[in-house]
Amino acid sequence: MEENLKLQQIYGTADDKIELIDNVSIPITRNSVFGLFGQKSSGKTTIQNKIVKEIVDRNKKLNQYDLDNPFIVKNAPITNVFLLSKSANSDMSTFLNAETKSKTVIDLRAFPDGMDQFIKQLYEFSDSIIANLKLQCQLRFNIKSKQIQEKILLFTQQRRKRVDDREIDLLFQVSKQIDLVKNKYPYLKVKETNQTVCNTMKLLYELYQQKYDGTCLRKHSIIIQIDDTSASKFLSGAAQTNLFTEFLTLTRHFGIYTMLINCHSITLFQGQRRQSINNYILLQGLKLEQVENLFDDLGLVNKNFSKQQFLQEYQNNIGYNAALDQNEKYKYNSMYIMLLPKKQIFLNLTKKIY
């Protein structure tokens, strides 16, 4: 699904106050993977942080979560932002502390196996949530049964202190198992919207002298940032593994709203890994030879837009300029390439050229 993401007043560091983007909209896709490429100080972290903050802020206003289809997350807040870096002292940590309830800044130096170890932990987290969502779907289905509702009501009216009914007891045990997950991840709680289900669950808990909190479990919606000052070296090892490739291609199943990867080199991502990234932002600071094969690799060739035009636009507008001194070398110019749902190219996130 394509959406417009408005980025307003993006600046560089507090010292230089260089304006990057002002009041423009760019197309993004849910379940996307962004690759931001450029040399050190070219603006990768600045753009990455702004994109994440805008997505989090926009989704805060959404609360239409469909409990009957819990595996489809369309209109619900972001639940987790994971920042992976070789240094946890990132300016993004301030944003996480201030803006999100679930903040996770991960220092990859604590993981001997680097990215692979984090992916395995995310697998375990996702599997646990999805397994309990399946139980919850079955629980809610059973609770909607007239027969179950009448039985629970009858037991309540009889004021039974002990429920000798295997079916009702099983429903309660399943519900308590789901409660354990809700309590472990309180940011995944959502209000039960079906009043009949809510009322029946209250009666069910009363049979066991407990109180139902009126909530259900929701699926997680994750943003992952890979922001590393030595990203090329860090990812070169992880990107060789099948686990990392699988991770890139299964973003939807992991509940990943979007993933952003900062890197110094395009050539690091080859073959299947390169095809897995469907949004690229090429920043000033990359030499022309670093991007010259990208046009063919991504299938951007078109009778109305040639490879030579692509390279010319890049060279004229955002290409590496060794003649500039160190202070003027990076002006945060960018070429944004989007592959899905349709191929598009923007200069500086404003002028569409393809």
Written account of the structure:
InterPro entries: P-loop_NTPase (IPR027417). The chain is an alpha/beta fold and 354 residues long. It is 39% helix and 19% strand. The protein has two domains: 27-107 and 223-352, Rossmann fold (3-Layer(aba) Sandwich); 126-217. It has helices spanning 44-60, 92-99, 115-143, 146-157, 166-184, 195-207, 231-238, 242-249, 271-276, 288-291, 294-297, 307-317, and strands at residues 2-7, 10-11, 19-21, 24-29, 32-37, 80-85, 103-107, 189-191, 215-217, 222-226, 256-263, 279-283, 334-338, 344-347, 351-352. The strands form four sheets. It has a nine-stranded mixed β-sheet with strand order 7-6-10-11-5-12-13-14-15, with helices on both faces. A two-stranded antiparallel ribbon has the order 1-4. A two-stranded antiparallel ribbon has the order 2-3. The longest helix has 29 residues, at 115-143.
| C-alpha-based Rg, rounded | 24 Å
N-to-C CA distance: 19 Å
Which fold does the CATH topology of the largest domain refer to?
Answer: Rossmann fold
**Largest sheet: spatial strand order:** 7-6-10-11-5-12-13-14-15
Order of helices and strands: EEEEEHEHEHHHEHEEHHEHEHHHEEE
Count of individual domains: 2
CATH class term of the largest domain: Alpha Beta
What general form does the structure show? elongated
User: Judging by the overall fold, what is the CATH architecture of the largest domain?
Assistant: 3-Layer(aba) Sandwich
Helix amount: 25-40%
Low-confidence stretches: 9-20, 88-103
Strand segment count: 15
Number of helices: 12
Which class do the helix and strand fractions yield?
alpha/beta
In percent, how much strand structure appears in the residues? 15-25%
Largest sheet: 9 strands, mixed
Overall pLDDT confidence: 76
